[in-house]
Design a protein that fits this description.
By secondary structure, this protein is an alpha/beta fold. The strands form two sheets. Strands 6-7-8-3-9-10 form a six-stranded mixed β-sheet, sandwiched between helices. Strands 2-1-4-5 form a four-stranded antiparallel β-sheet, with helices on one face. It folds into two domains: 138 residues, Rossmann fold (3-Layer(aba) Sandwich); 77 residues, no CATH class. Bound molecules: adenosine-5'-triphosphate. The site of adenosine-5'-triphosphate (ATP) has 12 residues, from β2 and α1. Adenosine-5'-triphosphate (ATP) binds next to β2 and α1. It comes from Streptomyces smaragdinus. Keywords: ATP-binding, Nucleotide-binding. GO terms for molecular function: ATP binding; ATP hydrolysis activity.
Length: 261
């Protein structure tokens, strides 16, 4: 997990993430194949696509934890992985990184001390309390993480990423295993973070109804971006009623094109 401090980088109108010709090789496979995309500030960009298409790899490259990355990849005006970005990005992986032998609050206290070393004790305490409230975990703040449910542990991990108000939040399937009410509340939180704090959110999901909640969607297939548009525009230009139908139609069109080659 990585978090924020202060001081914006790059002109405010520039996208938070800017990729051109982004290519990633993992083992013997070229997992991302020269892709172009931008992630605007103040919006939620959804990253959708079948299992294994490269969503997590794209996210890892964005936060600077992926090897063998070529092409252009800038985050807040700096090359991805720059040390100056570590404190500006909140990243939640699919495997929650929390200490199971600490309580939820102790986990947050620990990460606040590591991530916000210059904040006062009172400020860190306030940030921890706010992050616990953001993810609706106040009632479980003093429970050992090892005794929490899977969804609750995921929320501790998300709360860590929220400490300090990051400029860029990269969330890899943050709502897996959560009930519909919690999912709705978290999406409301994501929208508040985007609109009130001006942060850029890049969120991957398998759940197509969540795609409707994003301002923009990147649809991926086999290491390529096959569509980059707003949900309305996607539905309109494919003549479909849902993003899921639009996605399937675009995939079928891609397959038909491949068959002709
Ligand atoms: N360490 C690795 N070595 C070689 N190939 C890998 C490695 N990790 C992942 N891959 C391959 O890279 C491709 C993309 O994986 P990635 O995890 O980015 O997909 P994903 O879209 O996030 O999938 P999911 O939705 O299932 O999480 C997959 O084909 C996967 O098998």
């Amino acid at each position: 997990m990585m978090n924020y401090d202060s001081a914006p980088s790059g002109p405010p109108d520039d996208p938070a993430v800017h990729a051109r010709g982004l290519t990633v090789v993992r083992g013997p496979r070229t997992v991302l194949r020269g892709i172009d995309f931008d992630v605007p500030r103040g919006q939620i960009t959804g990253l959708l696509g079948p299992s294994g298409c490269g969503k997590s790899t794209l996210m890892r490259a964005t936060v600077g934890t992926q090897a063998k990355v070529t092409g252009t990849l800038q985050v807040l005006g700096l090359p991805a992985g720059s040390p100056a970005l570590r404190s500006r990005i909140g990243y939640v992986t699919q495997d929650p990184s929390v200490y199971l032998d600490l309580t939820a609050r102790q986990n947050l206290d620990y990460f606040a001390a590591v991530l916000l070393p210059h904040a006062s004790r009172a400020d860190r305490h306030a940030q921890v309390t706010a992050a616990l409230a953001d993810v609706d975990l106040e009632d479980h703040a003093d429970a050992l993480a090892g005794n929490l449910s899977g969804g609750q542990v995921s929320r501790v991990s998300l709360a860590v990423a929220l400490l300090g108000t990051p400029d860029v939040l990269v969330l890899d399937e943050p709502t897996v295993g959560l009930d519909p009410v919690l999912r709705r509340d978290l999406w409301d939180l994501f929208h508040r973070i985007a609109t009130e704090r001006g942060a850029a959110l890049l969120i991957s999901s398998h759940v197509m109804d969540e795609a409707e909640r994003c301002e923009r969607l990147l649809l991926m297939r086999e290491g390529r971006i096959i569509a980059d548009d707003a949900p309305d525009a996607l539905r309109e230009r494919t003549g479909t009623g849902t993003v899921e139908e639009a996605f399937l139609k675009i995939v079928d069109a891609e397959k038909a094109k491949e068959a002709l080659r």
